[in-house]
Amino acid sequence: MRVFAISDLHLDYAANREWLQQLPLHEYNDDVLILAGDVSDRLTHLEEAFKALSRRFSTVLFVPGNHDLWINRDRMRDSFEKLQTVRSVAQELGLRMDIFRQGELAIVPLQGWYDYSFGAADDYLKAAWADYRNCQWPGYDEAAVTKFFTGQNPTLSSPALLDARQIISFSHFLPRIDLMPDRIPDKHRKIYPVLGTTVLESQLRQLGSSVHVYGHSHVNRQVRIDGVNYVNNAFGYPSEAHFTRRQLVQVY
């Protein structure tokens, strides 16, 4: 059994959907795929991805990203309703959003959002960032949304983690801002406040993760920090094809 990872498929683009459908049908039948969010804000494209990947992999593990919880195109009441719908579709089509266990290996999904622990959101970001228009969390600010998600994450006391010798965790959102490389221009650092939360870092450290897969930033890299290998393998938008891998990456 091998474990592969990818995120940010953004199937709203035809070129990305074509790539998905050309994945070989029989190369990964004994393998696991970590799908780290941002498949599409359209349920039809989510279903397309879930069906295609379930046919190709033994197990597909999933956490939703921010785009998956946009409500405008599917005319949902709010993002809580969209989240429940996405979870139901994933379950119906055989995807897993819980702990996967095989022998001494455990793979742990970590849900999250952003709580400005990476910096404060200024007026420019609040006007430009599409989540503020396309997500609705009635009665919740960003810190409360983050707490809602991270409060559901597994802990080391979870029965499924008993005697696990190796733990791989994954999230859509970044667990630490220094995963962004120094080469990022200042103009692009304006989005840092909405990239993730330090709560995820605390949780993966408490789990004892040796590998953590994340998405969201569209900055593909593998880096080791304080004993943890962090892996971002975002497929990204067609306009980003010159710097994203646009292929599966094996993490185990």
State the CATH class: Alpha Beta
Strand order of the largest sheet: 4-5-6-7-9-8
Counted by DSSP, the helix tally is 7
Unreliable parts: none
Morphology = globular
CATH fold-level topology: Purple Acid Phosphatase, chain A, domain 2
CATH architecture field: 4-Layer Sandwich
Largest sheet: 6 strands, mixed
End-to-end Cα distance: 8 Å
The CATH homologous superfamily is termed Metallo-dependent phosphatases
Order of helices and strands: EHEHEHEEHHHEHEEEE
Task: Domain count, please report it.
Answer: 1
Question: What's the gyration radius in Å?
Answer: 17 Å
Approximately how much beta-strand content do the residues carry?
A: 15-25%
* Mean pLDDT across all amino acids: 96
- The structure class reads alpha/beta
Counting DSSP E segments of at least 2 residues, the number of strands comes to 10
Per-chain topology:
Layout: E1 3-6, H1 14-21, E2 32-35, H2 43-56, E3 59-62, H3 79-92, E4 100-102, E5 105-109, H4 123-128, H5 131-134, H6 142-150, E6 166-170, H7 198-207, E7 211-214, E8 221-225, E9 228-232, E10 249-250
Description:
- The chain has 252 residues and is α/β, with parallel strands linked by helices.
- It has one domain: 4-Layer Sandwich (Purple Acid Phosphatase, chain A, domain 2), CATH 3.60.21.
- The protein is built from seven helices and ten strands.
- Strands 4-5-6-7-9-8 form a six-stranded mixed sheet, with no helix packed on it.
- The protein is globular.
